[in-house]
Amino acid sequence: MDKFTVLESVAAPLRIINIDTDMIIPKQYLKTIKRTGLGTGLFSEMRYREDGSENPDFVLNQPAYRNAKILVAGDNFGCGSSREHAPWALLDFGIRCVISTSFADIFYNNCFQNGILPIQVSPEDLDKLFDDADRGANATLTIDLENQEIRGPDGGSVKFDIDPFRKHCMLNGLDGIGLTMEKAASIDTYEKKLSERAWA
């Protein structure tokens, strides 16, 4: 998993509440267990018209936001089913951070396991961040995980809370496997002792 330290990017505003995982990645894309290639299906029912052409009104199809790595979204982001394909699709598209006032628990946990930083802010702070995001290519946000701070284009900042363990994992690029590998020496020592005991 890639480390998350400081991220600077245009932020795409998605002023929709209750964005569920089926909206993030519709069910027809769930046939794969690969984490790559799902970016094309991200928000596909909003991104594409029935004939398969792009919907120019959808935010991620607009020139200013095509390369956005930050998503500023409405309340209760990631609700619905627990599909891990949702963070996979976001990450494959290039989104590394989602900012909202609230997240569904399972989606929130899945984000951390896949290198996406979900940041919870107050409604007042979300309104400020929406204002910044609405300025498109003329404004970028900086996400500083070490200092737990979102810096706006005009020098303003928003502080956010994060569990210290999750912060450690994100800063060091550690998912469940990475955490286990940190204990490799201890595991090897234990396995050796167990083997010696079996032959004693």
TrEMBL record:
Highest taxon above the source species: Bacteria
Protein's pathway: Amino-acid biosynthesis; L-leucine biosynthesis; L-leucine from 3-methyl-2-oxobutanoate: step 2/4
A single GO BP: L-leucine biosynthetic process
Keywords: Amino-acid biosynthesis, Branched-chain amino acid biosynthesis, Leucine biosynthesis, Lyase
Gene Ontology annotations for the cellular component aspect, listed alphabetically: 3-isopropylmalate dehydratase complex
Domain Aconitase A/isopropylmalate dehydratase small subunit swivel intervals: 1-123
The keyword Mitochondrion appears for this protein: no
Enzyme Commission identifier(s): 4.2.1.33
Catalysed reactions, semicolon-separated: (2R,3S)-3-isopropylmalate = (2S)-2-isopropylmalate
Single GO MF descriptor: 3-isopropylmalate dehydratase activity
Assembly and oligomerization: Heterodimer of LeuC and LeuD.
Family: Belongs to the LeuD family. LeuD type 1 subfamily.
Function according to Swiss-Prot or TrEMBL: Catalyzes the isomerization between 2-isopropylmalate and 3-isopropylmalate, via the formation of 2-isopropylmaleate.
Name of the protein described by the UniProt record: 3-isopropylmalate dehydratase small subunit
Phylogenetic classification of the source organism: Bacteria, Pseudomonadati, Pseudomonadota, Alphaproteobacteria, Hyphomicrobiales
